[in-house]
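Notebook, bench 3.
Goal today: get a predicted structure for Acetyl-CoA acetyltransferase from Pseudonocardia parietis so we can plan the truncation constructs. The sequence was checked against the plasmid map this morning, with no discrepancies at the termini. Length recorded as 385 residues. Pasting the sequence as submitted so the record is complete.
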Amino acid sequence: MKLDEIAIVGVGVTPQEKRSRRNSLQVALDAAGLALADAGLRHTDIDGIAARWPGPGGTELAPGSADWSTLLGVPIDWIGDSYPQGVPALMDAAGAILTGQATTVLITGGQAGVLGGDKVAAYTRPGNEFVEPFGAFTATHFALVAQRHLARYPHARRGAAEIAATIRNTGSANPDAVMHGRGPYTADDVLGAPPVVDPFTLLDLCLASEGGAAIVVTTLERARDLPHHPVVVLGAGMEWMRQQYVDPARYEQVWSIGDRAAAKAFALAGLGPADVDVAQLYDVNSLEVARQFEALGFCEVGEGTDFALATGIGPDGKLPTCTDGGLLSFSHIGWGAPTLKIAEAVRQLRGDAGDRQIHGAEVAVAAGAGSGAQYYNLALLGRAR
């Protein structure tokens, strides 16, 4: 069995909200139930799991995926706890299936009941050296990188604002987005929004919201008996420089992070950037989207914003990007956010994204993390032939 015989057969995304009345365990369970129902499977069909949130009465050591065996009442043959969300979890699950450790894997997580008040989200201020003692938060790590880039390419500032406005307007039209109906925005609106951390304004930066997300992964052979057209893994790559949000990011080291991961993914898939139909990039801020276009090989360094504007990244453009509104407008649910990227890619490739469907989408990229985090991962997904 090969990598492109690993299929995503179910996706589940709970209502995304600024503040939820549920808790993190509840939204993770809700998302899991939605993904299993979408796949036409039951929880008893699962023999592998990667879950960010432990079950009740279990370990206090997150992520605690083993707790879910008790929670679901089924024996689990494989658990993935190294990074149990997004592309890393998908590839861990693929490895488990390819080596016979599991046949059907559930990946689920999210956050709820953890935000509120006038403070930044707790997960943006981990208790790390150079973060907690100095009052830093994750946006400042990305801002350090952005400042250096804009010193070299000052024209990119307005281009980044255009990117933010485009993605936010995509989300404004999505009834499921947290920011539905907020907009339309222009680049001037983004540039004139309240400043948060130089060079970013409020509209340059992603949301902090609540909800759950889940996917179900199995073999292509099994997928052909399930309700939806299978979406398979064509290629993937990961790149880890160092632990996130400890040492400050250095521009020379991290601006191109993801280039080696992308080269690996495209080589495995036998494809190139020009073959991508939709891009679910990790839009933690406006300039990070442009950076990914450069790192992934869509254009040269310094040309990311020009590429986005010339190509068109809105629904009617040549490379629709963050087609649900992304982290900027749809939702950012902490550790569950990378799984949202995969879920939207799958919906586009299956052709069931509703009013936001991109006609003829056959290859999608789904990505996670970025320069300020000092690691990056991406997967190339495609419709099974």
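The two ends are 16 Å apart (CA to CA). The longest strand covers residues 231-240.
Flagging this for group meeting.
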